[in-house]
Amino acid sequence: MTLQQKLDDFKSKFESGAPPYNAPTAVIEIFHRATEELRQSGLAERALKTGDRAPVFTLNNQDGNPISSAELLTKGPLVITFFRGHW
Amino acid sequence: MELEALQTALPDIQRLGASLVAISPQLEKYGRSIHRRLNLGFDVLTDRGLQIAAQFGLVFTLPDYLKTVYVQFGNKLDEFHGEHAFRLPMPARYVVDQQSVIRSANVNPDYTIRPDPSETISTLEELRKGKG
């Protein structure tokens, strides 16, 4: 299964309202509304895109050690994934 | 799910000479727990106050009606992020070349849609070819 198939699978289970998630219809509608509003805000179109310069950063990793993007880029290309969190 | 998929793709990413980092606004202790639970071979970075996500133009504030639902479900973003505001980054994946230029960008306001890691691998392969 591809990543998107897994995501679709989870979504359809969640939105069925069945266990283990038991998501109420009202809640699902709220998620849809929020996603739709975010889409219509056009924020994604204004984010950095191909051809733009990437900001330089130094952030702490899971062990509290600072990781510098500039240093990683001396070794090769850098893949950055922004995620919301695992709740 | 995306982090697991990227973990699976990590050997290919490294084979192509690239590094991978994951960035979220969650405080270090939460990053540490994900890192352990998923047994990740790449760093999970804490973007405190979403400062870097903001520089990429990814940050939005949850509308009040959504915040209410998060709170009801015990999803305490303020605690996870160490800030009062309920803000999140749009999920995004970037490939940056050694000149700091973004070579692929995938940003989606719908968090249920994510690019396959194979797309990222293809970009890295093209970059390597270009270097030739």
Walkthrough of the structure:
The complex is a heterodimer of chains A (87) and B (132). In chain A, strands 1-2 form a two-stranded antiparallel sheet. Chain A has one domain. Chain A has helices at residues 3-15, 25-41, 43-46, 69-75; strands at 58-60, 66-68, 78-82. In chain A, strand 1 (58-60) and strand 2 form a beta hairpin. Chain A is elongated. Chain A has four helices and three strands. With 87 residues, chain A is of the alpha+beta class. Helix content of chain A is 47%, strand content 13%. Chain B is α+β, with helices and mostly antiparallel strands and 132 residues long. Chain B has a single domain (2-119), classed as Glutaredoxin (3-Layer(aba) Sandwich). In chain B, 44% of the residues lie in helices and 20% in strands. Chain B has helices spanning 2-15, 28-37, 51-55, 64-72, 77-81, 117-131, and strands at residues 19-24, 43-46, 59-61, 87-89, 92-96, 102-107. Chain B has a two-stranded parallel sheet with strand order 1-2. In chain B, strands 3-4 form a two-stranded antiparallel sheet. A two-stranded antiparallel ribbon of chain B has the order 5-6. In chain B, strand 5 (92-96) and strand 6 form a beta hairpin. In chain B, helix 1 runs parallel beside helix 6 (117-131). Chain B starts with a helix and ends with a helix. The model of chain B has no long low-confidence stretch (mean pLDDT 93). At the A-B interface, helix 1, helix 2, helix 3, helix 4 and strand 3 of A face helix 1, strand 1, helix 2, strand 2 and helix 3 of B.
